[in-house]
């Protein structure tokens, strides 16, 4: 058995050496197939740019070669930001600045001994002659996910509680942000365009925030005086869910407008609590629409004709596209005059972006001469990672002023809101996610006003 032990030991040692060498090559960016680089680097050429309303048109054959992360160091992760998925400083179990864990609140023992903990705490307070003091901080954990009641206000919301606290406290600052986002007094409204702006929110990669962006930008614009129509063109119907609009089988939907020529005003539904916002929902029937459209006359312009026939005055039409480049997305690109592309701040999000731009060029050349990319929005930005900064730099270096200054961070509230049938603007208007989307909506509205509402 000695020879077998020696053979196994030798093979294991060789495997470890190979793995170590491979890991070192990855870190140094010297893989056998070449240095790691950006997917945008594949798009090179000499075709001249043509001017557009929103600056030079994007030419996928004119993208500069950009190296991406030739070497990567392990990221130092901060754990003091609850919005980024970590435990906020100040919560039970979270580290203090010196490294010690924060003790759990008095009475927060195991479920089986909760009564014993409370009685022990009460006896301790009586024996010391000191009133028991509870922590008045929640960090950045939502009330829905916290089991600790507010020590002074019980179940009263944090926004309501902000009226009797110092304006410098985080609670008061959050309440100010909430008031700015919700605009309860109707003041400080966002500028309205001089004519209807139709924007397709597109990116064939899934999970980059298309639907979330569509919903929250639409709600932000509507809360501040703009008349907005959201068209849910994704068979999954997530935009309809996020706006709280019913979209089960049998409900009038955008499918009827595309296939049966039903007027758009007969399928839209009002969004509860937001008077200026309507939505054309998507049902499961939309999943077969692309096959049915193949044999339909003028199949690429069905959505365009439906929007043009819509009788009510609108400032914005936002079209939530599916994560593909099929006939539904083509209908959106033909109907729209602008394209908004949400880009996740990760490496894979850049792959396929060139193909999307090429498709937009094809639509512009053959079906819709007015279409162009007007807006790039960076989403799911994680400030704890160097990769997010690198992707942001690359995107801004290529798309230049088309990229909004507002960046959408990774945020727990943004993820929670759809489960309540709400946007983050109404679910937690004081959160960083809501504030960031409001800032993005401000930029979009201001750009539209400067351009006279044209696209």
TrEMBL record:
Residues 117-131 have a biased composition (Polar residues). Pfam families: AAA_31. Residues 75-84 have a biased composition (Acidic residues). Residues 30-156 are annotated as: Disordered. Residues 141-156 have a biased composition (Basic and acidic residues). It comes from the Bacteria. SUPFAM superfamilies: P-loop containing nucleoside triphosphate hydrolases. CDD domains: ParAB_family. Residues 197-373 form the AAA domain. Residues 97-114 have a biased composition (Low complexity). InterPro entries: AAA_dom, DNA_Partitioning_ATPase, P-loop_NTPase. Belongs to the ParA family. May play a role in septum formation. This is Chromosome partitioning protein. It comes from Longispora fulva.
């Amino acid at each position: 058995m000695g020879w077998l032990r020696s053979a196994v030991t030798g093979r294991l040692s060789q495997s470890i050496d190979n793995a170590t060498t491979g890991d070192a090559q990855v870190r140094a960016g010297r893989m056998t197939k070449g240095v790691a680089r950006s997917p945008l680097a594949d798009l090179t050429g000499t075709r001249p740019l043509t001017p557009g309303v929103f600056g030079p048109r994007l030419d996928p054959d004119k993208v500069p070669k950009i190296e991406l992360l030739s070497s990567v160091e392990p990221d130092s992760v901060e754990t003091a930001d609850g919005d980024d998925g970590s435990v906020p400083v100040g919560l039970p179990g979270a580290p203090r600045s010196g490294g010690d864990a924060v003790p759990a609140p008095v009475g927060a023992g195991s479920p089986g001994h909760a009564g014993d903990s409370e009685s022990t705490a009460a006896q301790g307070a009586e024996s010391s002659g000191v009133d028991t003091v509870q922590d008045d901080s929640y960090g950045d954990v939502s009330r829905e996910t916290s089991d600790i009641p507010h020590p002074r206000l019980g179940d009263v919301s944090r926004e309501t509680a902000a009226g009797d606290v110092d304006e410098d406290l985080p609670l008061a600052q959050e309440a100010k942000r909430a008031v700015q986002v919700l605009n309860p007094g109707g003041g400080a409204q966002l500028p309205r365009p001089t004519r209807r702006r139709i924007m397709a929110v597109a990116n064939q990669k899934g999970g980059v925030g298309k639907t979330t962006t569509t919903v929250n930008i639409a709600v932000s614009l509507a809360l501040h005086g703009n008349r907005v129509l959201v068209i849910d063109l994704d068979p999954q119907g997530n935009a309809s869910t996020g706006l709280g609009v019913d979209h089960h089988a049998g409900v009038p939907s955008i499918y009827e407008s595309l296939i049966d020529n039903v007027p758009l005003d007969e399928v839209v539904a009002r969004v509860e609590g937001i008077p200026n916002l309507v939505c054309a929902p998507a049902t499961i029937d939309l999943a077969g629409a692309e096959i049915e459209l193949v044999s339909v006359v003028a199949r690429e312009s069905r959505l365009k004709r439906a929007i043009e026939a819509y009788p009510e005055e609108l400032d914005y039409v936002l079209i939530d596209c599916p994560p593909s480049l099929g006939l539904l997305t083509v209908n959106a690109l033909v109907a729209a005059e602008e394209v908004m592309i949400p880009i996740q701040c990760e490496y894979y999000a850049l792959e396929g972006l060139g193909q999307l731009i090429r498709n937009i060029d094809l639509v512009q050349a053959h079906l819709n001469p007015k279409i162009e990319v007007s807006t790039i929005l960076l989403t799911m930005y994680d400030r704890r990672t160097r990769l997010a900064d690198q992707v942001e730099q690359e995107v801004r270096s290529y798309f230049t002023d088309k990229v909004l200054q507002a960046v959408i961070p990774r945020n727990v509230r943004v993820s929670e809101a759809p489960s309540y049938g709400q946007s983050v603007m109404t679910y937690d208007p004081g959160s960083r996610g809501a504030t960031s989307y409001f800032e993005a909506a401000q930029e979009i509205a201001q750009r539209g006003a400067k351009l006279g509402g044209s696209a």
